[in-house]
Automatic annotation (TrEMBL):
The keyword Transmembrane helix does not apply. NCBIfam families: LLM_duo_CE1759. InterPro entries: CE1759_FMN_reduct, Flavoprotein-like_sf, FMN_Rdtase-like_dom, NAD(P)H-dep_FMN_reductase. Residues 1-152 form the NADPH-dependent FMN reductase-like domain. This is Hydroxymethylpyrimidine ABC transporter substrate-binding protein.
Length: 230
């Protein structure tokens, strides 16, 4: 099973990345008990910040960002962790998921986590992150994990991480091809976002149009005309 981990931490070292790593370890530990093979890919959004901004204003993702989007779209499970900015997820985190095709995460189990300086933002996973992935039709496991500065080293956080990882591993084990991704006949063209006019990969993610990657190049005017004709 393929597990993708998206960390939106901005510093190095990062408490957000630390939480992502601990959630990943908890998930893999339970997958080992299930005797399930696994493949883990970590996407550090900090390293893709320039490419994300470039894609937002041009509609053309650089190859490294396209690979990250395809990795997330092809995963059997996703761990998504963000620092809290202004009582919500960070702009970098939201921008990355704005570039994911609206059908790419359909049926993909997601474990959400967040880090912040104080406990007062503890519900950010429920009022901001869970609705975001529900909009993308990705089921979010019941236990979300928020870690404030004072939580690190406490048994309560460790227990919550273990429970959340167990829930994600079990959810990934129950995923079948029929529960992942929408039937192509049921797909409604996304006309609401800038991502709607960007090229897509076979897995549904927006991807590169670089001919070196084996994909043809279609002009903006051609894609817009095709959408209008549809």
């Amino acid at each position: 099973m393929k597990l993708a981990v998206v960390s939106a931490g901005l510093s190095s070292p990062s408490s957000t990345r630390l939480l992502a790593d601990r959630l990943t370890a908890a998930t893999l530990d339970h997958m080992d008990h299930m005797e399930a093979s696994h493949e883990v890919t970590v996407v550090e959004l900090r390293e893709l910040a320039t490419e994300i901004a470039q894609h937002l204003v041009t509609g053309f993702p650089p190859a490294r960002l396209a690979a990250a989007l395809d990795t997330v779209a092809a995963a059997d499970g996703l761990i998504a962790v963000t620092p809290v900015f202004a009582a919500s997820y960070s702009g970098l985190f939201k921008s990355f998921f704005d570039l994911i095709d609206k059908d790419a995460l359909t049926g993909t189990p997601v474990l959400v986590g967040a880090t912040g300086g104080t406990a007062r933002h503890g519900l950010v996973t429920e009022h901001a992150m869970r609705p975001l992935f529900t909009h993308l039709r990705a089921p979010v496991v019941p236990t979300a994990v928020y870690a404030a500065s004072e939580d690190w080293g406490r048994a309560g956080l460790a227990r919550r991480i273990t429970r959340a990882g167990t829930e994600l591993a079990r959810a990934m084990g129950s995923v079948t091809p029929t529960t992942r991704h929408a039937d192509p006949q049921d797909v409604v063209p996304d006309l609401d976002t800038a991502a709607a006019i960007a090229p897509r990969s076979p897995t549904g993610a927006i991807t590169s149009t670089d001919p070196a990657n084996g994909l043809g190049t279609t002009s903006f005017a051609q894609r817009l005309a095709a959408l209008q004709a549809g």
